[in-house]
Specification:
Strand content of chain B: 5-15%
InterPro entries (chain A): D-isomer_2-hydroxyacid_DH, D-isomer_2_OHA_DH_cat_dom, D-isomer_DH_NAD-bd, NAD(P)-bd_dom_sf
Number of domains of chain B: 2
GO cellular component, one term (chain A): cytosol
Number of helices of chain A: 13
CATH topology of the largest domain in chain A: Rossmann fold
Shape of chain A: elongated
Domain D-isomer specific 2-hydroxyacid dehydrogenase NAD-binding (chain A): 121-294
Strand order of the largest sheet of chain B: 8-7-6-9-10-11-12
Order of helices and strands of chain B: EHEHEHEHEHHEHEEHEHEHEHEH
CATH class of the largest domain in chain A: Alpha Beta
Oligomer: heterodimer
Radius of gyration of chain B: 21 Å
Largest sheet of chain B: 7 strands, parallel
Pfam families (chain A): 2-Hacid_dh (PF00389), 2-Hacid_dh_C (PF02826)
CATH architecture of the largest domain in chain B: 3-Layer(aba) Sandwich
Helix content of chain A: 25-40%
Largest interface: A-B, 57 and 53 residues
CATH class of the largest domain in chain B: Alpha Beta
Domain D-isomer specific 2-hydroxyacid dehydrogenase catalytic (chain A): 60-325
Chain lengths: 328, 315
């Protein structure tokens, strides 16, 4: 006969989940070992976790600089069998090491894609139609003094070259086609299911685009792929939109291309060394700058909670993960 | 049309002015005091070219005995006294279609800008306030928001097609429902009901006696504390003082405004608000569209002079 004890909650390692409702939802379901509230150094925290009567089999980590899931980390917590990353990027997880050890990995899948696509479209309209710049003009009281604001340029007929036609790139294409844009793209291989014109290199894509959109992941291959050569191919009427990762663009070259008028404008949500933004951009009216916020709406936060819990529940009940990265 | 005396009311577009100067007998209304000008040249003016803010009102029409045609560099002709023109047999043309896409693009761009706070983020970054990664407040998703459109004419339809690509359900109000033409859009018989069932309300109808202040206090309160008003029509479509108060109180969530009741003056209170995006009547403000509009004005004047059918007549 069993007494009515509360169920034993599986142990979960947590790095950098700050949002209160998310935190609470995880605490309801799991015995959470939270690094950032433990106050301990990483080594001590992991040792204590490994020594827990029910050592953690799963980890939830935010992206970026929250934690590096590398060989040393995995050695320190041998009970770990599943890593869930709440961020879009996976550059903080050593997928090779995880694969070697049979540690499953899942990420947030497409929870951010819609909002990033919407933000990118919003920035594109803003740069072409000078929305933020015209706003500054109005707020400074210049409309009655200086009269009409300088003209922007029409969206219809613009060739938008998307680097990376994944979820975000696809959602952007559907939206931009409704504005009359023509979609071109580059990705590792052409996609048979789309009728957009494919370009084998980013340089070729840029040379036949009016707007170049960075919508791919950061990797060894894509680091600084938008370089001087690509910017020159884009040309003096071209604009760049970056909602991928800062290091995909050679930022110094981008700044000098803008300063010298070798390209016409840019919409940037990400930068090489966030939160540092090159100061030269602050005086430019043809750029729109946002603080890496394209993914973050109440709705994507709620979708993320669902995706995290969905994947954790699947793992703990031995079912297939919802959005697995490993095993492939 | 070298003998056509054209009175340009305002320097609306450099290319248009240059072409009128080259091809017609151009008079620039702003170059001398009104009375002096009329005394000297009233009899020579056969055509008037104005725009959204400068039109041929009754007084001006009365002062121009030889006036034959008013060709407006705009699609909205609320500043032209149409009744007077009909009475005098004066033709009136506008510039529809060529600016539809630009205005619709801006309407949707403003909606995304307000909901996702893009200009606000840009201000934040430029002010050097971005000090740490992960420093953002959550905005609200644009895709899927219920979009209500007042006036499903050319511009309203163009807005509808764009927001459909964002999976936004579309509803509308206008004088008549056209269910067979728009089976996917929901019709509401009143603007208040439309507002009550929308997250984003877009003004896209012409301005006339029955649409003045169509966006009233009641409509704005129905749209509500999370609702966003987008005005790419005319300032007087909206009861502006009520809107300012509703935004300040939080009874209306936000607004994206391209037009104002007394342009170029924008209510001071709006300039300090973070939940609004304000642009200076740039709905058709692209090089491509303004040139197309100018060519349409020139084309209408030429057709008139050659006694051919006008390209885009209103009267």
């Amino acid at each position: 006969m069993t007494s009515s004890e509360p169920p034993v909650l599986p142990t979960l390692l947590m790095f950098r989940v700050r949002e209160l409702r998310f935190h609470a939802a995880l605490r309801e379901r799991y015995h959470v070992l939270d690094f950032f509230t433990s106050g301990e150094p990483l080594h001590g925290f992991l040792a204590a976790a490994a020594a827990d009567p029910d050592p953690p089999r799963a980890l939830v980590a935010a992206g970026g600089d929250s934690v590096s899931v590398d060989a040393a980390f995995l050695d320190a917590v041998p009970s770990l069998r599943f890593v869930f990353s709440t961020g879009a990027g996976l550059d903080h997880i050593d997928l090779g090491e995880c694969a070697r050890r049979g540690v499953a990995v899942a990420n947030s899948g497409t929870v951010y894609s819609t909002d990033v696509a919407d933000h990118a479209v919003g920035m594109l309209v803003d740069v072409l139609r000078r929305v933020s710049a015209a706003e500054r003009f109005v707020r400074r009281g210049l409309w009655p003094l200086q009269g009409d604001y300088p003209l922007g340029t029409k969206l219809g007929g613009k060739r938008v070259g998307i680097i990376g036609l994944g979820n975000i790139g696809s959602l952007m294409s559907k939206r931009l086609e409704a504005f009359g844009c023509v979609i071109h793209y580059n990705s590792r291989k052409p996609k048979e299911s789309v009728s957009y014109r494919y370009f084998a290199t980013v340089h070729d894509l840029a040379s036949e685009s009016d707007v170049l959109v960075v919508a791919c992941a950061l990797s060894k291959e894509t680091r600084h792929v938008v370089n001087r050569d690509v910017l020159d191919a884009l040309g003096k009427d071209g604009i760049v939109i970056n909602i991928g990762r800062g290091p995909i663009i050679d930022e110094a070259e981008l700044v000098s291309a803008l300063a010298e008028g070798r390209i016409a404008g840019a919409g940037l949500d990400v930068f090489e060394k966030e939160p540092k933004v090159p100061a030269e951009l602050f005086s430019m009216d043809n750029v729109v700058l946002t603080h890496h916020c394209a993914a973050f709406t109440k709705e994507s936060r709620s979708d993320l909670r669902d995706a995290t819990i969905g994947n954790l529940e699947a793992f703990f009940s031995g079912k297939p993960l919802l959005t697995p990265v490993l095993p492939r | 049309m070298e003998s056509l005396g054209v009175l340009l009311l305002h320097p609306v577009n450099a290319y248009l002015e240059q072409e009128l100067g080259r091809r017609c007998r151009l008079y620039r209304f702003w170059e001398s005091p009104r009375e002096e000008f009329l005394r000297a040249h009233a009899g020579a003016v056969r055509a008037v070219v104005g725009n959204a803010n400068y039109g041929a009102d009754a007084a001006l029409i009365d002062a121009l005995p030889a006036l034959e045609i008013v060709a407006s560099f705009s699609v909205g002709i609320d500043r032209v006294d149409l009744a007077k023109c009909r009475e005098r047999g004066i033709r009136v043309t506008n510039t529809p279609d060529v600016l539809t896409d630009d205005v619709a693009d801006l309407a949707v761009g403003l909606a995304i800008a307000v909901l996702r706070r893009i200009p606000q983020a840009d201000r934040y970054v430029r002010a050097g306030l971005w000090k740490s990664r992960g420093d953002y407040t959550l905005t609200t998703r644009f895709s899927g928001k219920r979009v209500g459109i007042i006036g499903l004419g050319r511009i309203g339809q163009a807005v509808a097609r764009r927001v459909e690509a964002f999976d936004c359900p579309v509803s509308y109000h206008q004088r008549t429902e056209q269910a067979s033409v728009y089976p996917n859009y929901t019709y509401y018989p009143t603007v208040v009901e439309l507002a009550a069932n929308s997250d984003v309300l877009v003004v896209a109808c012409p301005l006339n006696a029955s649409t003045r202040h169509i966006v009233s206090r009641e409509v704005m309160e129905a749209l509500g504390p999370k609702g966003v008003l987008i005005n790419v029509g005319r300032g007087p479509h909206v009861d502006e003082p009520e809107m300012v108060a509703a935004l300040a109180d939080g009874r209306l969530g936000g607004a994206g405004l391209d037009v104002f009741e007394d342009e170029p003056n924008v209510p001071e209170a709006l300039l300090g608000m973070d939940n609004v995006v304000l642009v200076p009547h740039v709905g058709s403000g692209t090089y491509e569209t303004r040139k197309a509009m100018a060519d349409l004005v020139l084309g209408n004047l030429e057709a008139h002079v050659l006694s051919k059918p006008l390209l885009t007549p209103v009267v």
